[in-house]
Amino acid sequence: MDPTFAAELADLDAIGQAALAASGEVSAAELLEAAILRLDAARGLNAVITDLFDRGRDQAVALDESGALRGGTAGPVAGVPFLLKDLGASLAGAREAMGSRALRDHIAPETAWIVERYLAAGLVVFGKTNTPEWGNHCTTEPSLFGRTANPWSSDITPGGSSGGSASAVAAGVVPAASGGDGTGSIRVPASCCGLVGLKPRRARTSFAPSGQLLEGLAVEHALTRTVRDSAALLDAVTGGAPGDPYNAAPPTRAFLRAIDEPPPRRRILIATHSPFPAPPTDPRVAAAVESAGRALESAGHHIEPGAPSFDSDVVADAIAVLHNVSNVQLYNFAKAHLGRDPLEDEFEPSSWVMMREGFATAGVDYADSIEAIHAQTRRFAAGMGAHDVLLVPTLLAPPPHYGILDQPRGTTRAFFDVEFAHTGWTTMANVTGWAAISLPLATTEDGLPVGVQLMAREETVLLQLAAQLEQAMPWAQRRPAGWLGAPAI
C-alpha cells in the first residue's frame, strides 16, 4: 500500500470512502490496508489496544468477492474500516477487557446486537479501542493499557470513556469508531478531540443480548468527523432487539435523508452556565456557545436565554448510587470470569470506591435513586416548555489535563462532583433520555478544540441543526498536529 494514497484516503469521511468502493476505484481490502498503515503509524497514540487485522481482512475480501459494494447497493458506509470501543461492543472470540485488570484475559463469548448491525451495514471491523475501566471516567488512562494520547496535544486527555475511539478518528486512522455514553462518554471525547459526537435518545439502539446499563442512562453510537457519517451510522443501528425493556419510536424518515432537508424554525434556549456547582464557564467556551446561537439565529431559529431547572444535588446523589450498583455488577462479572474473588488491586482505585459503596447500598436506596431520576426528568422537561432545543457547552472549559477525571475522591459522590464541575450539562441528556450532540464549533487561541452541545427529544432535530452549523461554521479543514492524512494545501 502506497503511504501517500493511504494518507489521501484519510481525508475522506466514511460515506466518501464507501463511495470510492461503490465506484470500483478501490476495494474494501485496499481501504482496510490503508487504515492498518495509518494505525501502525499512530501506535504512539495508544488508541487501539486489540488488533483484529486477520478478521478484518477476511471480512473485506468476502465483501469484495460478493460484489455487494458495487453500485452502493450495500449501503452508504459499506466497505469502510471501523473500530469498536472495548466496552459495550463485544465481538465473539475477541478480547474484551473493558479497561479492567481483572478482565485482562477475558474473551467475549457473544457478539453484541449493535456490532451485528455494524457488520450487516458492511463496516469492516479490525480493532478495539482503549477505554477506562467499565467506562467510569471521562478520561482514558486505564492502568491496564495506559493512557491514550490526544492527537491535538500530548498534554490533554482525549476524554472518556470513548477516548480511544475519539483519538483514532481525530488522527485519521478511521473516519468513524463506536462509542457509548452514560454521563457524556461520547460527547466529552468529541469535544476534546474536535469531533461530532451524537448521543442518541434512550432506546434508539439496543444493548442486547445484555439488558440495559445504568437503568437506561447509557446508550451507544459513534464518533465521527462529519454530521452525515453520524446520521448514516445511526440509520444502520436504529431500532430495538426483541425483548428490549423499552423502545424508541421509529424515526419518520432516514436520518441521512433528513439532514438534506431544511429544518423548521426551532425555539432554542441557550445557556453558558453549569447546572451543577462549578467554577464560571471559561470565557472561550461561553463565546463558542454564543457564536453558535448567533449562527442558528441567522438561519431563522428563535434563540432565547434560559435553561430548565432541576435539583442538581438530587441528580448527583442518584447518579452516584446507580454507578455504585453498576460497579458491583462489574465485580461479580469479574468474579465469575476469574473463578475467585477479585483483588482490590485488580481494579482502579476510583472503581473500588464505587464497589465498596455499592455493596453497602440497600435495595430501597437504589429504587429511590431511580425514582429521583424520573422526577428530575419531569422537572427538566417542564422547564423546557415550548422550546425544542437546549444549546449549552459540552465541557465548561477546554480539554483538561490527565490525572484529574480518574482520581478517587473518597466517595463516589465526591468523584462525580469533580466530573460534573468539568462536564456541566452532559449528564442531563442521559438522565432525561434526550438526544444530545457535541459539535467542534470553535478552537482556543492555541488551537485546542471546543465543543458546543445541543439537546433535544429527537435526533432528527439535532442532526438537521448540526448540518446547518456544519455549513455555517465548517470544521472539516481543522486538523490536529497528530493528523495522519494528507497535509493541508
Strand portion: 5-15%
Low-confidence stretches: none
Whole-angstrom Rg: 21 Å
Write down the CATH topology: Amidase signature (AS) enzymes
Order the strands across the largest sheet as they lie in space. Answer: 4-6-5-10-11-9-7-8
Q: What would CATH call the class?
A: Alpha Beta
User: Given the structure, what is the number of helices?
Assistant: 16
Oligomeric status = single chain
What is the first-to-last residue Cα distance? 23 Å
CATH homologous superfamily placement? Amidase signature (AS) domain
Give the helices and strands as they follow along the chain. Answer: HHHEHEHEHEHEEHHEHEHHHEHHEEH
Tally of extended strands? 11
Catalytic activity: a monocarboxylic acid amide + H2O = a monocarboxylate + NH4(+)
InterPro entries: Amidase, Amidase_dom, AS_sf
Domain Amidase: 30-458
GO molecular function, one term: amidase activity
Give the gist of this structure:
With 489 residues, the protein is of the alpha/beta class.
